[in-house]
Structures are given as C-alpha cells and as structure tokens.
Amino acid sequence: MAEPIEYTPGPVTPDSARDEVDDLVSALHETGLLRALGGAVQAYPELTTALVQRIPPDTVRSVSRLGSLVRLPQPGQSDAIVAGLRSAVAAANEALSGEPPSWLDLVRTVRSADVRRGLGAAVAALDAFGREVGRRDT
Amino acid sequence: MHDQFRPLSQDATAPPPTTVTITIDGQDHVAVEGQALVAALGEDVPAICHVDALGPVQTCDTCLVEVDGELVRSCALAVSDGLDVSVATPRAVAAREEAGQRLLGNHVLYCTICDNNNGDCILKHGVEAAGVHAQKVEFSPKPLEIDDSNPFYRYDPDQCILCGRCVEACQTVQVTETLSIDWEAEHPIVQWDGGAPIGESSCVSCGHCVTVCPCNALMEKTMLGRAGLFTNLPMAFREPAIDIVKAAEPVTGLDPLYDLSNAEAVARMASTTVTKTVCTYCGVGCSFDVWTRDREILKVQPREDGPANSISTCVKGKFGWDFVNASDRLTTPLLRDGHRFREATWDEALEVVATRLQAIVDEHGGDATAVIGSSKASNEESYLAQKFARQVLGTHNVDNCSRYCQAPATQGLWRTVGYGGDSGSISDMERASLVLTVGTNTSDSHPVIASRLRRAQKLNGQTIVVADLRRHELAQRADVFLRPNPGTDLVWLSAMTKFILDEDLADDDFLANHVNGLDEYRASLDPFTIDHAADRTGIDADVLTSTARMIAEAESVCALWAMGVTQHHMGSDTSTAISNLLLVTGNYMRPGTGAYPLRGHNNVQGCSDFGSINSFYPGYQAVDDEEVAQTFATAWDRDDLAREPGLDNHGMIESIHGGDLRAMVVIGEEIALVDANAHYVQEALAKLDFLVVSELFFSSTCAFADVVLPAAASLEKDGTFTSTERRVQRLYRAMEPIGEARADWQILTDLASRMGREWGYTHPSQVMDEVADLAPLFAGVSYDRLEGYDSLQWPVAADGSDQPLLYVDGFHTDDGRANLHPLEFREPSEVADDDYPLHANNGRVLEHFHEGNMTMRSPGLVDRVPDTYVEMSRRTAADNGGLQSGDWVVLESRRGEITLRVQLSDQVRDGQVYVPLNSNEARINYLTSNAVDPDSQTPTYKELAVRVRRADTDGDGGHANGARRRRRRGPDGARLGGPPPEPAGAPLPAGHHRYGSPTPREGVEVERKWARDDYTRPGQGD
Prior knowledge:
The complex is a heterodimer of chains A (138) and B (1022).
Chain A: H1 16-31, H2 33-42, H3 44-54, H4 57-69, H5 75-97, H6 103-110, H7 113-137
Chain B: E1 19-24, E2 27-32, H1 37-40, E3 64-67, E4 70-73, E5 84-86, H2 90-104, H3 122-129, E6 153-155, H4 165-174, E7 179-181, E8 190-192, H5 208-212, E9 218-220, H6 235-252, H7 255-270, E10 273-278, E11 287-293, E12 296-301, H8 315-319, E13 334-337, E14 340-343, H9 346-364, E15 369-372, H10 379-393, E16 398-399, H11 407-416, H12 426-431, E17 434-438, H13 442-445, H14 447-460, E18 463-467, H15 473-477, E19 480-482, H16 489-502, H17 508-514, E20 515-516, H18 518-524, H19 530-537, H20 541-553, E21 557-561, H21 563-566, H22 571-584, E22 594-597, H23 604-609, E23 616-617, E24 621-622, H24 626-636, H25 649-658, E25 663-667, H26 671-674, H27 678-687, E26 690-695, E27 707-710, E28 719-722, E29 727-731, H28 744-754, H29 764-774, E30 791-793, E31 818-819, E32 838-843, H30 859-864, E33 870-872, H31 874-879, E34 888-892, E35 897-904, E36 912-916, E37 945-950, H32 1006-1010
Parallel strand pairs in B: 1-5, 15-16, 15-25, 17-18, 17-21, 18-19, 20-31, 21-22, 25-26, 26-27, 32-36, 33-35
Antiparallel strand pairs in B: 1-2, 3-4, 3-5, 6-9, 7-8, 10-11, 11-12, 13-14, 13-27, 23-24, 28-29, 29-30, 32-37, 33-36, 34-35, 34-37
Helix pairs in contact in B: 9-28, 10-28, 10-29, 11-22, 16-19, 16-20, 16-22, 25-27
C-alpha cells in the first residue's frame, strides 16, 4: 500500500563561495556584459573584419565627422583618433595572432610612452563619459 | 474554390509549379508561373510589406518596378510567360528609394540597440535595398504611448511603419479580426478592436501579428532587452545615445549605422541558438524555430515552410513555454523512503527499478506488470516503451492516453475505412466546400485548424456546420449551428444519412464502386426518422433536413470531431455514424473530403502508431497475427509473447483492484487526475506493489510512486512527433536537459540494459531505423528524410513516398472497399435527473492545455485564465439560488464534489454547465464515473450529472473524501501560478478576449490609404 506523499523540489544546497561566483556571474548576465563579451569573443572574426576591412574610407571619415559633433576639440584631432583606433585594432589583431606575452613583457610594454598615452586617453574618455551619463541620470 | 484561394498548410493536391521565362532588365530569367513577381526579382527589390502567406498587401511601395513603361507594385503582379520587367531604370530606383524614405518617417533606426536587429530585420534590409543611404523624410512621432497591456507582446506606435502585415494576418489568416488601421485618422495607427488596449480587446494572443511584423513595432516581451548585446541599456544611456546618433546622421548618412548594426547582429547571434522544434501541446503539429540562449527562451518564430502551420501559432505554441524552466522541474531521481521522498543517483534509482520489476516478473509473471506510454513523448520513446513492456517485461499490458480520448474515433474508422487516422491533411479541411464539426471546440483545442476554417469561410465561402452543446467561438461563426441534447449525436447523424438515402441524394456511383454493406446498413437506419430525431435531439426537423441537403449537395465535405463525440457511452458508434455519413455522400478519396478525428495531444497519434497500445505491435500489426508475432519474436529474441491483447488503461486499473496487476511504469501520464473517477484510480495506485513514474514535475501520480525519474522536456531532446494529419516531423534538441533529467529513450535504454537487454541506442534515429525495418507503415521513414522542416505522412513506402491523402485508389480493407457499419442507439450512461439535475460538460480553454501541468506554470497564460470555473447560463444561476459570477459553489456528482467559482455565460445552455479541465485543485475527474464505451473502453467523461450549491466559506474548500489539496509552489514557497489564495470576482478577467469587440475588415484595406489626400504613389511626380 503506497500512501501518497507530497514532495516539493528542494533548493540548491548552500555553498557560499559558489554563491558569490554565481552572484557575480548573475550580475554580469543581468547587465548584459556577459552576453556582450561572449558575443564579441564568439564573433571576433566577423567583428574585426567589419571594423578593420569592411568599413570603407568614406565611412571612417563619416565617423570622424561624427566625432566632431560630439565636440572633440578639433576635427583634425578626431581624424587622428580614428586613425589611432584603426591602428589599435590592427595591433590587437597582431598581438592576438601570436604567442601571449609574458607578464614581464607586459610590464615593459606599459612603460612605453605610446601605451601610457593611449591609456591616458582611454581613462580620460571614460571619465568624461561617466560624468556625462551621471549628469543625465540625475 | 475561388481562383485566388489556396490552402496555407502544405498542400499536396496543389498542381506542381510550372516555370516560365521572364525578362528582367533585358536578361532572361526562369520564374514560377503565378507567383508574385517580387519573389522572382531577388534581393535588389525589397518587399517590406510582402509575406507570401498573406498575399499582396501593397502598403509599402518599396517593390515598384516598371512594366510596359508603367510603375507597378511587383508584389501584386503575378509572373506570366514573357513578362518584361525593368528594375534598374532611374525612375524605378528613385520610386523605391522614395518609398523607403517614407517608411523612415514612421520609424527610428537605432538598430544596434534594437531587439529586432538579429540579421533578419525586414525593414532594415528593405530600406538598404531601396537605396536609402541618408534619411530625407523627417521622423514624425505618433501621439500615442507604447501599449504594454498584453502579457506576451507590446506595440510601439512610434516604430510602426504601417505596413499592415499584422492587420492582414489577423484579418485573413488568424481571422480573429481584431486588428485594423484607421487610415482616415490624422495619425493612422494599428488598432485593437478599433482603439481598445490590447489586453482588453478580442486579441487571443495567437502571435501572428508579432511573427510577421517586419520591425520592432510588435515584439515578444521575452525578447525585449534580451536579444541584443546592448539592448538592455538603461534609459538614461539609451535615449542620449540615440539622440547623438540621430544628430550625426545628417552628416554621416545611414551607411555607418548599417555596418555597425550588421556587425552587432553577427555578434549577438553568435550566442543565440535557433532550433527547429515541434509544438508539444495539441495535435495540429505546428513546427517553428525556437530562439534560445542557453536555457533562456527568447522567442518562438514560425516559418512559412512549416508544413502544418506556416506562419500560424496559438497563444500556447507562441508564448506558453515557461514550464520548461519552471523552478519546480524535477531535476534528480527520487526514491520513496518511509514516509518521504529522498533524492537519489540515477545509478541507485535505476537499480531499484530494475530489481523490483524483475522480482515481480519472476514471482508473478510479466502480466503482473504494465507500462503506460506518453502522448507527450516522442515516437521513438513510444516504441521503446512498448518494447520494454513486450521484450523486457514480457507483457502486452501497454497503453497510452488515446484510451481516454480518441480510441473510439479510431474504432469507428477501423470499422468503416480501415486506418485509424485522418483521411487527408489540414489543406483538405481548408479546401472543403463544407466542413462539419461535431463535438469539437476547435477554436480552443486546435486553434490553428480553427483559424484555417475561419479563413476558408471568409476568403473562399466555405460552409461551416457546427454541432455542439456549447455556443463556442466556432459555433458563433458557423453557418449552421446544431445544438443537440447531450449524448444524441448518433441520432441526428443517422437520421440525416437516412434522409439522404431516402431522398435519393446519396452518391450512388461512389457507393457502388467503393462501399460494401449498403442494404444491411440501410435497414439499421429504419428507426432514425427525421421526426424521431427531432424529438430525441431537440433539433428542429426542418433544420435537420435542410442541413442534410446541404451536406449531400456540397461539392466536398470534411467531418471533424473530438471529445464531444468520443467520450461517450456511444463514442465508437457515433464516430462510425460520422464515417457512414461521409461514405453515403461520397466524401472520401478526393481532395477536400474525409474524416478527421482531431487528435488532442502533440503525439497521441504517434504513441499508438509506434506500438504503445495493448492490441498491436508498432504500425498497427495485430498481436494475434502469427506471422507478425514471429517477426517480432525473431527481432527481439523473445518467442513467448501472448497472441492475445494485454490490458488497456482502464483494464489496468481494474486489474490492480483485482489484485493481479502489481507494478506499473508510467511515462509522462497524469493518470491520477486524467482518468475518470479519480478517487477510484488513486485508490488503485495506492495498492500497487511498485510504481515508477517518469515526469517533468512532481505530479499527483508521482505522489503514489516508489521511484520518480526526472524526464527531459521536448526542447531538451531529439525525436519525432506525429500530428493529427499523420505527419511525422523531427524535433531537435534546443538545450541540455535541466539538472540531471534525461530523455525517456535514454531512461528506457538504461533500464533495459539493467534487466538484461542491451539495446545500445545512442540516438533516436537508430530507434526509427529499427521501426522502419519492423513496421511496413513506416518502411520509408528515416531521419534523413525528415531533415529540418521536411515531413512525411504515413503510410510511407520504402522509397520514401507518403500519402497526404490517405485513400486514393481504395480503402485499407481486405477488398479495398469501405464498409458501412449498422448501428443502434443506446441511452447515455448517466443523464440529469431529479437528484442531479444539471448536465456537466468539460474540456479545454484556449489558454490552457488539459489539466494545466504545463500551462498553469506560465504567468502570462494564468493572467488570461487564472483557474477553472463552472460556466452556466443566467437562468441556471438564478434557479440555483441566484448565483453570480465569482460566487464559490460546490459541484457535486454521485462520485464526489469540487469547489470552484461561477462564471456566467451565454455559451452554455440552460440546465447545463461547463467546467474547464485546467485547475489547481478543482479536478473534474473527482466527479466522473467508471462507465466506458464498451467498444473502446474509453471513459464517458461527457456523461455526467451534477448538482450545485453555494459553498460555505468555512467548510467547502477543496474536494471531498479527504482528498489532498495540492498547491503549486517552488522551492522558496513562492506560488507558481494559479489564482491568489482567496480569489474574488469573476474567474475570467474583464479583459478576457471573449468580451472583446472584433472589427472585421477585408484585410488591411490599402485602398483607404491610397485615398488619403496626403498619399501619392512614389514616382508619380516624375
């Protein structure tokens, strides 16, 4: 005689370390960052092709002019930035195609004036961007 | 048939396409005669408003080309031999660009952060192809807010290009006739019921409009903020970003945006999986792509090459997939351990099952065990379920839920025409000049077939005759609505047939050439005079004779029926009467004719076809056929199987009570609630020595089990289903099984191995290959022939040829002739009387499937219909204490009682009530009886007398006899659907579609757009 027994599927067994990782992954997922990174990595060949090879010079010039509309100091400077971006993508491509650099090599690279200039520009851009978004948010 | 009308479902009767030569810009091209010219022009000519299934809509003007010096819309011009088309002339190019520019006046291109930028955006590709490189027509926002009132989709007027695809689909494919465009307004928009919020309109959420929308104006809510890499950006970023890009656009043009969004589309699709599957709800056999990201279901997208459904879906198929990821899915095996269940490993669980089953077989013989296959599982799993019963356990005690529904229809067809399956295809139903439906609430239970009938009626003048107790949706649209007294269908069917014979309206040639037994059958009709029928059925005699004439004189007739016929004491005989009527009127063996028992589950046809039935080996090879038995004895290395049928579902329950049946394997079947007289069934389950249940959720049946095995859902496995039109289709695995769940074919293979039979299957295709070798009905079926959206309708010959029209040269009988089957009428097993004065009908509603195991886990579906109810007329309510909608009542039969709320309605006749099957607690089968149709053993669910009383708020919660109250709750105790704890008010929300006010139109009615003062055809000024 089998009396009916109720059963409710139980929750996952607590595991604090794993929970924290899960929380991190969940946050990355909810913000879309995980998907963006995953998609970018999986579509890396297509993305680089589109960015480096498929965009015609006219388009690059258009993006450059787009840069002028978001009030970069000088049109000439925005052209330089676009040229710099293309060089950066090409350099990234080259770097990714070879053996990974050692940590020592990386430290040496960071000491390069060009790298510091690029990092400075990126940080400044992020700072300005964040300030603008924050202003609109409030 | 009207010249322009063609079936939407795959149409094997359509003449093969013929090719002709046309000239495009001076070059000869081969094209299909009669097809829309735009389809022959390639991607250079956009067709943003054109969908082949909809026909020419002609709203967008982006397909303009020159023919004979005139600009014409190539979507509206049919290909003919010698047609000379100019595409690349400056005038045509300019006209197409102008048309594209106008569209952007109604739509903001922010593709990279748009959820529709998935590489298949019709609008984006269209405006690109139209040569729009910079926007010239300024975007003009519409003074309306986004309509977010439907639980499944939303409408953004500002993104709507007014192409009218959605309207055309609603008005001429789905034919709910909810959507229209107010072309005469200052700012025309798509309207629901002429201006109601979507969630309060007649919209049935079928999803046609969303499926055909060429942009992001209509979007599935499951896609919003999830489809793209950047589409869930916060508004604080999103709007400024759009503003910046829009500010730059006049300078940069659109090309950089196209490039950027194309790259983003590639990136987002890299992490999105698109998988073809087949719907797991009713038996129509809808197939579609399901878009997933890991376990997340983004959307369901039907395609025009879906053989059964093309672009069509119902609300469940399009939006009702939440159950796959419900938090209470079973994820690990469970073992009964004293008075609780505990989790176990697969190894431990399977060892327990194998050991216990083997011990019972050794001690009591194989016939002390039984297997119930699942009509939700695949064909391959049905084959393995019966193979497990026969080869491993050594018994023919194997059956499936067709015993509860369509076994009587199968019996009726076996008697008369030979095969227990639909005698044609859905396209035949569309093609028929008259469709007779008996006891089928097609609009709710087989929604896509109902849409095909409404379309055929609207576009092709099809006559629809509905016979039913309830004035349901299709009855409201019928040309003739017959409303017989309960249980009397056989009487009026036989009386009409007698009238047709007596009035010399029968198809004498057909009877002479193809049918046996006319004289004996005709003699059996003597009692069925029109006067007797009118008296017994309550149908007016003149209506009976006029309808009989209508059927006899119709060029082609299809008869559709379902549970309203079969779940009766005379279910098999009434099914036979329908087939008899078709034979007498010559309505077999031709396109647009035939008998169509509408199968209720996605694979209830296939479950029997592939052998989970007590009397047949796979492919309906009788167990008492010595040659067949020898074939299987050799193939399975087991020569001691009986030559008599085993127990069916009904017999199994009786055998448990009798002490002979001791163990059962139940695969995905909620037998504790769906078999009639649930108390009696549950008492039987409690008596079993051993019960193993394979399930998605912890069902009521699981509560009686010794071992519960977590099964994979249809999206988590490969396999095939067979739909109502005998169509075998593949489903592909879209995601990994949840937790430790496994596909039933794997579970059965492992079990067989532990019990000494090494099957060795590693993929379901190997199972299908074995079936093809053993069952002539499926000789030519293989996974290769079922690749993608390809399908086969059995019987399938070894060369792969199938039979969409089942009877072409003759019937499936010894002499190839059909047999008229004499019939007598018997009274129903239970009728309303003084003690139980109300007839209780029961069945489905559109939003829920059966008892609700899957659909009650969908918040959107529960929002539309939260729970079951008892539907009654105002007079019945008044006669029972002045009841009102929302009042709690107890519904009581001779077997038990349930407590539920009242829903007043004019769909139910006085003295009758209707109870939907879906429920959290109030299960109709606590009321139904043990009586069965003696020819099929199908319970008489529809022969039920009840009484009603107002519930006491303190004492009448739940059903009687101490039965358990089951609530659906997740691991955290959160409710998983269903009504609030103490619901009040009417059971159906005020916004339910039945209270809407449809706005029938011919279609999008583009002529009204062309008549506007501000409209000129692009290129007209040149």
